Amino acid sequence: MTTTYAALLRGINVGGKRVPMPELRTLLEGLGHGAVRTYLQSGNAVFTSETADQELLAAELERAVEKHFGFPVACLVRDGAYLRAVSAACPFPAATLEGRQLHATFFAEPVDASRFAGLDQQSFLPEEFRLGDRVLYLYVPDGLGRSPLAAALARPTVLKGLVATSRNWNTVARLVEMTGA
């Protein structure tokens, strides 16, 4: 059975880790994936595969990117059904917000809420976050760039040992659409 996936590459096209999207598409096609498309320049690709193991697909892509580009890049691979579930489970009113006000941080594995216990959420209001299934939903009414909550969440003490990558809600919605979910 063929499944449509989104690959989320972490931290590319910033800080010297340049991955041109045409080369990423060619790389994914070379791995045997079909219907390869990319979205924006920030490491979002959609493809089809017969392989059902998302972790295997991510590891394969990580190896290929490092071999081709010469630097490691963490990759998460999620199927369209998962992305649709993330969108449907959003605890914030996504339809009434601007894309820059809502973000999703995707994790490679489930994250326990105790990791965030040291953050006094009340002190960051009106900014808020909620945990979901391998995702953190972040509401920042003034955008991510000046968000004290986003800065607190990005501290190494909070994210230590986690593979994570964030997308604004416009990108999440587009990936849901592109995966046909």
Automatic annotation (TrEMBL):
One Pfam family, short name: DUF1697
InterPro entries documented for this protein: DUF1697
Record-linked PANTHER family: BLL4334 PROTEIN, DUF1697 DOMAIN-CONTAINING PROTEIN
Protein name, entry field: DUF1697 domain-containing protein
